[in-house]
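Lecture notes, part 5. Sequence design as translation. It can be helpful to think of inverse folding as translation between two languages: the language of shapes and the language of residues. The source text, in structure tokens, appears below.
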């Protein structure tokens, strides 16, 4: 194993934290960017040449990236070739995991990079991986994705794909120019219910789609306990300095694919947004930390609960909510209303105008609880049926494993990915656009058309078997 440990580790890490505080404010002050010219080719239905073995590298192996590494290292057709993180212990731990999982010796030459902020650049240059998995703090997603593609790799980026519209355009243009995939890894699209609802929508079970409801309502104040490294150490600054819906994609991704937004049928048009007062984080910091603690020095500005409404080209509506602060049970809403019924989540419920056999005579009662078994039997997505046994212990109820398996399956078979670069940008654009709407007292904001009009020629996501 190569070792690229460098001296300035502590200095650099301290610098990173300071730099982050300054940079985090870009979440809320995006400019409207005019459509930049593209020198490349449209990536809507793009498939890359097959790879017999995917030489995979990881940037960021903290909480999330180490999970990606653990399941990807188990897959056939993969060789883990490099790992980069700020911290030596993270790199060494993940290298050992990969090494042990590659029993036959398939992950024996893992190049390791830690220390300075930009070590990952050296990794890309020296190792030239086929695919890079980026699971770092949000502000690093765009530069890491862009540089990975420029160095000849397909790139798989954690959510959100980027935090500014300007960076989203750069990602689109780089992907088009380099002809490399850039997929935002929206794992929720691979949940059992989400896959089943997609299947039901495509089969016309609830008729024409009218309206969706999506959310990420997840009380995560406890992350503030991660004061010096880990999620809370950087996300807390976003909660203070950001504006609008800071984490829209888990709820929105599946609903957007039910509606085929950005693919042939319809697309994102505009958004309006409002936030509640920002109280919860301040109260939490006061209650749990001394007056001079850094969490009590922040001026928490971003409203605890954000509510946005997206209007689509066809005139459909999608409500998107976000709250990672207030005490209440987890929900992503996951609701889609059609002319013949509704599919909903948290808890899973289905209402059909025509009823469902003995279980429901019409739409006035929900099919839920034990009654769902028959529905799953009839409408479970073929992908779920094929992969569930293999991936069920992979995290988030199995959705993570299905997503990772599909990524490698698509790369080794030369197939289009299930989520294209434009979808990652549309879904992530809710953050800067909701922030701008709030700054302008709820004024509607137009979505940039990242496809430059080509969405109407992009195939809908088919039901993968
Ligand atoms: N899809 C999901 O379900 C899900 C769940 C959790 C987190 N996430 C996303 O995953 C990403 C990572 O979150 P996390 O909870 O793992 O955070 P984390 O802080 O635990 O991990 C981030 C890692 O990135 C590393 N890093 C930061 N800057 C770097 C640099 N310049 N070079 C190399 N490494 C660098 C850090 O050292 C750290 O180990 C975030 O974008 C988050 O939104 C997604």
């Amino acid at each position: 194993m190569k070792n690229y440990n460098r001296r300035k580790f502590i200095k650099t890490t301290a610098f990173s934290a300071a730099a982050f505080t300054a940079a985090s404010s870009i979440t809320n002050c995006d400019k409207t960017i005019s459509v930049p010219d593209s020198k490349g080719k449209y990536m809507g239905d793009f498939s890359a040449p097959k790879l017999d073995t995917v030489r995979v590298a990881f940037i960021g192996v903290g909480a999330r990236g180490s999970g990606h590494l653990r399941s990807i290292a188990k897959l056939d057709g993969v060789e883990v070739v490099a790992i980069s993180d700020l911290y030596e212990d993270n790199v060494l731990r993940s290298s050992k995991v990969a090494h042990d999982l590659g029993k036959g010796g398939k992950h024996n030459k893992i190049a390791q990079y830690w220390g300075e902020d930009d070590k990952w650049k050296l990794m890309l240059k020296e190792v030239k991986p086929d695919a890079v998995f980026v699971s770092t703090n949000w502000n690093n997603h765009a530069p890491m994705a862009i540089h990975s593609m420029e160095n000849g790799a397909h790139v798989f980026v954690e959510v959100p794909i980027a935090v500014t519209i300007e960076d989203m355009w750069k990602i689109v243009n780089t992907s088009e120019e380099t002809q490399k995939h850039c997929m935002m890894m929206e794992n929720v699209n691979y949940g059992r219910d989400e896959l089943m609802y997609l299947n039901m929508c495509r089969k016309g079970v609830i008729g024409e789609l009218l309206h969706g409801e999506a959310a990420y309502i997840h009380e995560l104040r406890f992350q503030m306990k991660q004061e010096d490294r880990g999620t809370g150490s950087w996300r807390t600054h976003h909660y203070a300095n950001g504006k609008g819906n800071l984490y829209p994609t888990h709820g929105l991704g599946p609903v957007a694919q039910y509606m085929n937004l950005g693919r042939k049928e319809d697309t994102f048009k505009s958004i309006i947004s409002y936030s509640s007062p920002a109280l919860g984080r301040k109260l939490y910091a006061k209650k749990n930390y001394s007056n001079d603690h850094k969490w009590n020095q922040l001026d928490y500005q971003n409203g605890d609960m954000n509510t946005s409404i997206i209007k689509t080209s066809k005139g459909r509506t999608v409500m998107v909510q976000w709250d990672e602060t207030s005490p209440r049970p987890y929900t992503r809403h996951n609701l889609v209303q059609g002319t013949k019924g509704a599919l909903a989540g948290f808890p899973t419920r289905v209402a059909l105008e025509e009823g469902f056999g003995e279980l429901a005579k019409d739409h006035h009662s929900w099919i839920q609880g034990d009654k769902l078994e028959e529905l799953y039997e009839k409408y479970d997505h073929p992908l779920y049926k094929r992969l569930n046994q293999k991936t069920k212990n992979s995290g988030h109820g199995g959705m993570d494993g299905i997503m990772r398996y599909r990524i490698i399956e698509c790369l080794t078979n030369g197939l289009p990915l299930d989520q294209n670069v434009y979808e990652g940008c549309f879904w992530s654009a809710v953050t800067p656009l909701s922030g701008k709407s709030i700054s302008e007292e709820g004024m509607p904001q137009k979505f940039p058309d990242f496809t430059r009009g080509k969405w109407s020629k992009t195939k809908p996501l088919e039901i993968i078997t």
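The translated text above is only one of many valid answers, since several sequences can fold into similar shapes. The radius of gyration is 22 Å.
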